[in-house]
Amino acid sequence: MVGFLLRWGTLLAGMWILAGSLLFLLGEYAPTTATYSSPKLGSRLLADEGVFFIRPGMMILLLTPVLSTLLIGLSSLRRRDWPVVGATLIIIGVLWLNSPFR
């Protein structure tokens, strides 16, 4: 289950980041043929859409190991493997202390 979470979390994050990067690069460096007053408006919108996709991809990539640690901790708690539960709680505490969400 942990391998499944890590594999698919990484692939999902990679697809989000790749899509955002392509949109960003197309918006940043694409030639514009618009005839309206601001020729860079269309490319800027594409670049903004790229950043809109990159940020969730990075959040998924950062949360994947945290979720796998929680999954290991819950699995160990169910099996009553107390040393692993203790180590998992220490790891989660260190992650919490280093997170920007505390």
Could you explain the architecture of this structure?
With 102 residues, this protein is mainly alpha-helical. The chain is 81% helix and 0% strand. Helix 1 (2-29) runs antiparallel to helix 2 and helix 2 (41-79) runs antiparallel to helix 3 (82-97). The longest helix is centred in the middle third of the chain and has 39 residues, at 41-79.
Keywords:
single chain; 102 residues; mainly alpha; 3 helices; 0% strand; elongated
pLDDT averaged residue by residue:
80
Q: Termini separation (Å)?
A: 28 Å
Helix/strand structural class: mainly alpha
Shape: elongated
Number of helices: 3
Biggest sheet record: none
- Count of the domains: 1
Along the chain, the helix and strand elements come as HHH
Total DSSP E strands: 0
**Helical residue percent?**
over 70%
Unreliable parts: none
Rg to the nearest angstrom?
A: 20 Å
What share of the residues does DSSP label as strand, in percent? under 5%
Topology:
Elements: H1 2-29, H2 41-79, H3 82-97
Helix pairs in contact: 1-2, 2-3
Summarize the structure.
The chain has one domain (2-97). The protein has three helices and no strands. The protein has helices at residues 2-29, 41-79, 82-97.
